[in-house]
Amino acid sequence: MGITLDFGAVLARWPMLLGGAWMTLELAAVATLLGFAIGVVCAVGRRGSVHWVARICGVYIELVRNTPFLVQIFLVYFGLSSLGLSLPAVTVAIAALCINVGAYSAEIVRAGLDSVARGQVEAGETLGLSRLQVYRHIIFPPAVERVWPALTSQFVLLMLASSVCSQISAEELTAAANFIQSDTYRAFETYIIVAVMYVVLSLLLRAAFWALGQVLFVRRRRLGTAI
């Protein structure tokens, strides 16, 4: 039996697909910014001398990195509901994405912080810089520069992981695809188109992060080192 493909019924609903793709990008953008901030705080906290802070950061990182994202988003969704907090699905999705990417970003950033030579830190302390100034001017810029490719990959994976948010009715791209295939009975064609759209979104994000790296890391661009 041959397979007859008919993409017309799916493409006729292109506004819904574009709306879902835009929501996916919005989820990824907000979660990337907030998750990166969480990652930086946890990376610094885990390297710090305050043991209870380091322990809390370590427990958070290990719990998130060793549990599926689907379980995490259900815990946030049903956990908030059991506390009497009725939040929109998009808000819950962003919270779950931030919690997830924050843990992974923390380990990536921590690796970058650990790569900075101790002598550079001691030189800054000798000049009378405060701990915050040492992190801001000496440790943080080269650390992020070195791990930027890994962070970029993690943020792209975050965008792809946002497809799980369809399980709590967040109206992103996969949720739109689920509705379209149930309405048109063209599941194979629908998910072929959605797969292509995810590839395009991934390439666009990688290009955007590459361009951002060219702007932020002037020294590496002048040296001709790839980002």
Could you please describe the fold and organization of this structure?
With 227 residues, this protein is an all-alpha fold. It has a single domain, classed as MetI-like (MetI-like fold, Orthogonal Bundle), CATH 1.10.3720. The protein has 10 helices and no strands. The protein has helices at 8-11, 14-47, 51-65, 69-82, 89-115, 118-126, 131-161, 173-184, 187-216, 218-223. Helix 2 (14-47) packs antiparallel against helix 7 and helix 8 (173-184) packs antiparallel against helix 9 (187-216). The model has no long low-confidence stretch (mean pLDDT 90).
Helix content: over 70%
Q: How confident is the prediction overall: mean pLDDT?
A: 90
**For the terminal residues, how far apart are their CA atoms?**
49 Å
Main sheet: strands, sense, barrel: none
Individual helix count? 10
CATH class call:
Mainly Alpha
Please state roughly what percent of the residues sit in beta strands, choosing from under 5%, 5-15%, 15-25%, 25-35%, 35-45% or over 45%: under 5%
- Structural class, please? mainly alpha
Q: What is the total tally of β strands?
A: 0
State the order of secondary-structure elements, H for helix, E for strand: HHHHHHHHHH
Shape: elongated
CATH superfamily: MetI-like
